[in-house]
Write a structure and sequence with these properties.
The protein is about 15% helix and about 25% strand. It is of the alpha+beta class and about 500 residues long. A hairpin with a 5-residue loop joins strand 16 (about 245-250) and strand 17. Helix 2 (about 180-190) packs antiparallel against helix 3. The longest helix has about 35 residues, at about 470-500.
Length: about 500
């Protein structure tokens, strides 16, 4: 064989291999609808399904409908991506573009053609009919901002954006998975034990798929009736925080909340009854979408709020004792002891174990005995958790009592006022508030037993003490009236007797 023939065969083989490598670059993802931030934020993605890198210098990607005609540059690695962003590198947040282009794709559809440096067509995607690629359904969603994405066998689906990432259902064009293709290539070239080891390692290697994630931040233990803090955060493909789109909260107690991601500040929610609640958070890149791009859940346990002021000191040492009556350790960080005169904030990381107490000195709180009647325990949100004044219940008496006269024992029994030998008393017998007064014998037996059923006496009235002097005056007037009446009767009878004595005399005729 001549040297010229050998050279021709070598060159032919070289170009043949080169063209095979080129043919493995495909149009992989099309964001013809833009993003939830802006409809102008269109982007495109190429993918190299081959096992070697490809130089894209002089390649052209163009659309038959719309203005983009993009000249490519640089290289695309084996099993790697090539991202093209419209206008600037802010189109896809957190990911550096490989190429910046101008122009716009038509929302009514286009045919995308990828040509190599020689002008040969490498790949074509026909979405001329409203982006209905290979079927009767539009690929990509202008409402949810989900993109058109290539899957195994060259078919297309609508799914959440995955710039520079392999979607879970993707496998290289021609069938098989990425790992299987690599392992087959390595197996065919295996010539030693070291190559076999490399093949085994390749088979067990798992590629990590980047995706949008969201996370709920908050405590998983709270008190019934007291606010509990929550915050949600969404993370992009590179782990960056996302500030566009919206969040939807479901607190598991019948309440929910929808907020914009840009206004993602910490907020509170109150559970009114003890129990366990599942809190879920959905993140939507597009504010008008109904399909979440990421979700998260946590379980919240709500217990009765049984943190109380169990004791206080006296005027010499006015300490305040707090007690945790719950079955869980309680974090009292930033809780507040307050009165009408002053307040004290409990420092952060103050933890009170179950069924334990903590005693706080007046040298720390600056409280005194004057704060006792208005002392309260409040949450960090300034909600009253315990009112010490309201918790002090006054002693109730079941039987009325009359202050004993001077010189008598304080707890002596009351005499039976219904007895004929009862002392002088005032009885309230009238109907409709009429009061009748009676005089009873004043002697009382020494062994008089306590009365079981007292008559309705003035001692039962809650106004005896305040009207005691008035009753005495009325009684005195009554006595005077009786005396005057008796005197008048006596005077009248006396006059009558004198008149009758005069009638005993006769005039005799002499």
């Amino acid at each position: 064989m001549s040297k010229k023939l050998i050279l021709v065969l070598v060159l032919a083989f070289f170009f043949f291999k080169f063209n095979l490598a080129q043919a493995e670059v495909v149009i992989n993802e099309i964001a013809w609808m833009g993003t939830s931030v802006s409809a102008n934020n269109e982007w495109l993605e190429l993918y190299n399904t081959g096992s070697s890198s490809v130089n894209l210098a002089g390649w052209v990607l163009k659309a038959t409908s719309g203005t983009p005609t993009i000249t490519l540059s640089g290289t695309i690695p084996a099993n790697g991506f090539y991202l093209l962003e419209r206008t600037n590198d802010d189109t896809v947040l957190g990911i550096t573009a490989d190429n910046i282009y101008t122009g716009a794709l038509s929302n009514s559809g286009a045919i995308m053609v990828l040509n190599n440096a020689s002008g040969a067509e490498i790949d074509r995607v026909d979405g001329s009919n409203n982006w209905q690629i290979g079927g009767s359904q539009t690929i990509g969603d202008n409402t949810t901002k989900q993109t058109a994405q290539r899957t195994s066998g060259g078919s297309w689906i609508t799914s959440s954006p995955t710039p520079k990432a392999v979607i879970p259902s993707f496998s290289p064009v021609g069938g098989g998975s990425l790992l299987e293709e690599n392992s087959n290539d390595n197996t065919s070239n295996t010539t030693s034990n070291s190559s076999t080891t490399t093949t085994a390692e390749t088979k067990t290697k798992i590629a990590e798929i980047s995706k949008i994630k969201t996370k709920i931040t908050g405590k998983t233990l709270g008190f019934a009736g007291l606010p509990l803090s929550f915050q949600g955060t969404a993370f992009g493909l590179e782990g960056e925080s996302l500030f566009f789109g919206k969040y939807f909260w479901n607190f598991g107690d019948g309440d929910s909340k929808e907020i914009q991601a840009i206004d993602n500040r910490q907020f509170t929610h109150t559970y009114f009854y003890p129990g366990e609640y599942i809190v879920s958070l959905d993140y939507f890149q597009n504010y008008y979408s109904d399909v979440p791009d990421a979700s998260d859940q946590i379980t919240i346990k709500i217990i009765p709020a049984d943190i109380l002021i169990s004791r206080v000191g006296d005027e010499k040492d006015f300490f305040v004792e707090l007690r945790n009556n719950t079955d869980y350790t309680a974090d009292l960080s930033n809780w507040i002891l307050t009165s009408d005169r002053k307040s004290f904030t409990i420092p952060r990381n103050t933890v009170l174990a179950t069924e334990k107490t903590i005693t706080i000195s007046p040298r720390i709180t600056n409280f005194s005995i004057e704060d006792k009647n208005t002392l309260k325990l409040m949450t960090p949100q300034q909600e009253i958790a315990f009112d010490y004044t309201a918790s002090v219940v006054p002693v109730k008496t079941t039987t009325p009592s009359i202050p004993p006269p001077k010189g008598e024992v304080k707890n002596s029994s009351l005499p039976d006022l219904t007895s004929p030998s009862a002392p002088l008393s005032l009885s309230r017998r009238g109907v409709g508030g009429e009061v009748n007064f009676e005089v009873a014998p004043a002697s009382v037996p020494d062994n008089q037993p306590p009365a079981d059923n007292l008559t309705a006496s003035v001692a039962e009235s809650d106004v005896v003490d305040s009207k005691n002097s008035r009753t005495i005056i009325i009684f005195a007037i009554f006595i005077i009236f009786i005396g005057i009446s008796a005197s008048v009767v006596y005077f009248v009878r006396s006059k009558g007797d004198i008149f009758r004595h005069g009638n005993d005399f006769k005039i005799l005729d002499e």
